[in-house]
Amino acid sequence: MLAGAACQRVTEGSSGTSVSTSITPDAPLRETRWVLRQVGGQPIAGVATANQEPYLFISAAGTAEGLGGCNRFRGALKPATEDAELQFAPLQSTRMACPELVTEQAFAQALESTHAYRITGKLLLLYADAQRTGTPLAQLEAVPLP
Q: The DUF306 domain covers which part of the protein (predicted)?
């Protein structure tokens, strides 16, 4: 199970002492709806409705599912051997044509190339290398489940 660290905002009080004003825990990798915000370093253009937003959901059981913008996908995670490792088994997808196809293909490629992740607050960053360096393949934001 993933143990999340917490982000803490610290301000200096009038007496010069540090005062913690809030703690925002990192979102968990599993059982969170992750909405795609960037892929390949490019922001995702707004879609017509929230029902069409590209997203990823990883269940507690280790299955992955989501929406690329028009087509739904589903598959499993490969077993992780190290912390922060994340790899998807081949994901199966429906094959409908739609205006969001370019974004959908870039999202699918990012998921296929993912080997590691980092969660910072409400952001999930997917990386091609285990060292989690360089520009993330994709950036997703945790949003409440509908």
A: 27-131
4 in a domain, yes or no?
no
Reported as type and span, the H/E element at residue 67 is strand 63-67
- Which is nearest to 35 in space by CA: 54, 7, 10, 21? 54
Q: What is the CATH number of the domain that holds 133?
A: 2.40.128.270
Give the chain's residues under pLDDT 50.
1-15, 17-22
Three-class SS state of 106: helix
Residue 45: inside a domain, yes or no? yes
Residue 73: give the domain boundaries: 27-143
Integer Cα distance of 77 and 82 in angstroms: 14
**Helix, strand, coil % (nearest 5) of the chain?**
10, 40, 50
Length of the chain: 146
Residues 120-139 have pLDDT tens digits of 999 999 999 999 999 999 99
Query: Rounded to an integer, what distance in angstroms lies between the CA atom of residue 28 and that of residue 39?
Result: 21
